[in-house]
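Lecture 7 notes: from sequence to structure.

We start with a single chain of 102 residues. Read the sequence below before looking at the structure.
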Amino acid sequence: MSKRKFEISFDEERINQFDEYTSEALYDALDKSMQEGSIIKTGKGIYEGNNSSDFIVMYFYLFDRAWFMKYVKTWYSYHDGGVEDVVKYAKIKERQIANEFK
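Now the structure, written as tokens:
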């Protein structure tokens, strides 16, 4: 099994701008969400494990959470010796979908 890791941070300026949640509340909600299967929190916004299936489930789960996508600043997914900038990918997909409906 290959080691997997997510590194996630929230946008403090956006949090302050909208004043809906505190940074602490967002990280707490993220921690609770990431308690899936074999995923272990190893630092603030850092989650690791060996089961790819658990990370795939969380990948789609987090994409579907409006509170998460509104405030996420960085989200890196490490797997198979590489790294993916998930926020960059999400913005590209969002633009592609928007263009399909023009």
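The mean pLDDT is 89. Keep this in mind for problem set 3.
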